[in-house]
Specification:
14 strands, C8orf32 fold, alpha+beta, single chain, seven-stranded antiparallel sheet
Length: 276
């Protein structure tokens, strides 16, 4: 499928601010699952953009605004063609769960087996994971069982959490939004030695109004596979990936700081239009 995506973030400050330093992670990568035909990033007040690739191969745009300003507008536009692979069967035998610890020896998996800012390796998550995969001997079947458990364990409730909500609080309250579903599934997978990473992107629906979050897990034999625990499904061509990391803290769409008032408003607008 082909999509035109507009992502606009506007900050309005109660009084003038200055010395604004920002990193923007909004440029999707061209990977086997998707092709980026075009990407444009616009910032107002007008600035000079610099870009670099971070530790997890995400494209980052950096800018600085030293002079006083009363607002900040960050707008990205891109056209993308998606071609995600088909789903793997629920009962497929892919790799023995008893040997999954061998994935730790793959260099690209090490960080995604450790605790991170919003995901701890705690006993509570480990017990939940063991119960969810009880009786299973295949790593892929275990991953799907953990996704199904996450989907049923949490209640989707808009505005019930925020971007700094920790996985342990999600387990306690049993509610959240897409990033909380992702953090919980990541914690469950890591607790049983299955590498898992957080993914930021878009899900093309009629009501899409923000970025979406899901998880990629590594299973020897099939590599990294994407799962959406919020919707309890493997990915299809309606998904667009922006980037990945250990958890949300590695891939926020916009992060930065400035000097001035703390009183501000933020408005985010996302429009995803299929292209025929």
């Amino acid at each position: 499928m082909k999509f035109d995506i507009l992502h606009r973030t506007r900050y309005t400050y109660a009084s003038l601010v200055c010395d604004s330093f920002n990193d923007v992670r909004l440029e999707p990568p061209s990977i086997p699952e998707q092709t980026v035909e075009s990407f444009l990033l616009r910032v107002l007040p007008a600035v000079r953009l610099r870009h670099y690739t971070d530790f997890y191969s995400n494209r980052v745009h950096h800018f600085e605004i030293a002079e006083a300003h009363s607002y900040l507008l960050i707008e990205s536009q891109c056209r993308i063609i998606t071609h995600w692979p088909g789903a793997i069967a629920r009962d497929a035998l892919v790799y023995p769960l008893a040997k999954i610890a061998s994935a730790a020896h793959v260099e690209r998996c090490f960080d995604f087996l450790q605790a991170s800012r919003y995901v701890e390796l705690e006993a509570g998550a480990w017990r939940l994971a063991l119960d969810a995969i009880d009786g299973l001997s295949d790593a892929w079947q275990a991953v799907l069982a953990l996704m199904e458990f996450t989907h049923s364990f949490l209640r989707y409730e808009p505005n019930s959490t925020h971007v700094h909500t920790h996985m342990r609080d999600v387990i306690q309250d049993r509610r959240g939004v897409c990033q909380d579903f992702a953090h919980l599934l990541i914690g469950l997978c890591r607790s049983v030695k299955i590498p898992a990473r957080y993914v930021s992107g878009y899900l093309a629906t009629e009501t899409a109004s923000a970025t979406h979050a899901w998880v990629e897990v590594f299973v020897p034999g099939i590599g990294w596979r994407a799962l959406d625990p919020t919707h309890n499904r493997q990915l299809d061509e309606a998904y667009v990936k922006i980037g990945h990391g250990r958890d949300y803290s590695d891939v926020p769409p916009v992060c930065g700081n400035y000097r001035g008032t703390l009183e501000r408003t933020m408005k985010v607008e996302v429009k995803i239009n299929p292209v025929t």
